[in-house]
Amino acid sequence: MSDTASDTDSTLRAILSDVLGLSPDRVAAFDASTGLFGELPELDSMAVAGLLTEIEDRLDVVIEDDEVDGELLENYGNLLRFLEAKVGPGTVG
Amino acid sequence: MIARWPCPGPDGQSDEYALAFDRGRKARLLIVPPLFDEANRMRRMLVDTMRLLDDAGVDSFLPDLPGCNESLQDFSAQSLHARRRAMVQAARHFGATDVLAVRGGALVFPHTLPGLVLEPAKGGSILRQLIRARVIAAREAGRQEDSAGLLEAGRTDGLDLAGWRCGASLIAGLESAVAQIEGQRIVAQGELGGGGLWLRAEPAAAPEQSAALARIVLAEIAP
Questions:
Q1: Interface contacts (A, B; CB < 8 Å)
Q2: CA proximity to B112, closest of B102, B126, B104, B101
């Protein structure tokens, strides 16, 4: 549980569960290829903005405008990889 | 259920609406709603809480913030300062004995009343999120905008954010606003169980959260 990468993973899943109103079980089934923006109709621009702001608060990171692009939010794996790099550079991933 | 209250505005006094459960009881709770879209997302949960409080012998009032819901006031003329005055006026009109401020409502609630604050939001965070939504929407539409430039322009000319025409004074006020909590009990989302409904992309009822909030309010204000 002390592994930073898996903490980021579980925090991100919890945030997605809150934003999308999905059960923890459904969010636990997300894998790296699960589509986000464009595939989940709930994720409009306002919801994405809320998602990113909540991620910043809970993971204590800052996400810059130019880091937010279609690729970042294309699937769960891309978003998680990006955040793991921000939260704990050099930790086991 | 629907009550009117006299609200100060830029063109003098105008009537605003409030959802009210008023049976002239001793404990009278003013609920100051969240700002912007969060008010819509949380309204059902708050109204269900009001019904439970009504059953438990507490009167409650959920006023429209001027410029929102049924209000005829111009949204672009609103500022945090004006809304603070409006909420003081609503509290006085309804004879509120206690207050429950929710999220951004904590930036404009009458902090001289005892009561509770649910997950108070900072003005800067609210503004940052609204500007970010605009930048993302612009990018989808093939336009490039950046947060810093928008904020700079907003401070002098106001800004369209998520469908709201925010005046310069509202932008400037939000930037640095923090909740003035003076002894009110701070309620954390974790106490209600489940995720914060202000985060939820598609709003829904949350009976367990309403029940938990009603219990916490009742324990605090002891009718």
A1: 61
A2: B101
